Amino acid sequence: MSFADPQSITISAVTSSLPKVSSGNYAGVYQSADGLILLKASSSYGNRTRQVLRVDHSKVAADAITGLNVKRSMSCYLVFDRPVDGYTNADALAVYTGFKTQFTASSDVLITKLLGGES
């Protein structure tokens, strides 16, 4: 089963459409028309089950030293890594829901502090 095609993402109040550009065994890649945003979803199965949802974002920005415009990129991703048995999908969703509630509380203050170097 696949995600809806296209996907969309809103970054800094700009919504970008991400049509599927690749799919394979337990993986899909969605990309913006300008190639600056990628959404990747993948699952792997073995001794542990691992699912990843990842956003890769690129932009052109002035280099701090030369002042020349250069392409810069960053990634943000969520990983579920669990044993083959002992955690149902419902269990994993419950852990994720608690985690999401914690990091989105008070206007994302925990993430703001993390990005500022706090731990």
Number of domains: 2
The H-and-E topology, N to C, reads as: EEEEEEEH
Helix content: 10-25%
Main β-sheet description = 5 strands, antiparallel
**Sequence of strands across the biggest β-sheet:** 3-4-5-6-7
Question: Structural class given helices, strands, pairing?
Answer: alpha+beta
Q: In angstroms, what separates the terminal alpha carbons?
A: 38 Å
Report mean pLDDT, rounded to a whole number. Answer: 96
The outline comes out as: globular
CATH names the topology of the largest domain as MS2 Viral Coat Protein
The value of Rg in angstroms is: 17 Å
Query: Number of DSSP strands?
Result: 7
Poorly predicted residue ranges: none
Q: Give the name of the CATH superfamily of the largest domain.
A: MS2 Viral Coat Protein
Per CATH, the class of the largest domain reads Alpha Beta
**Approximately what portion of the residues adopt beta-strand conformation?**
over 45%
Q: How many DSSP helices?
A: 1
CATH architecture of the largest domain: 2-Layer Sandwich
Short description:
The chain is α+β, with helices and mostly antiparallel strands and 119 residues long. The protein has one helix and seven strands; from the N terminus they run βββββββα.
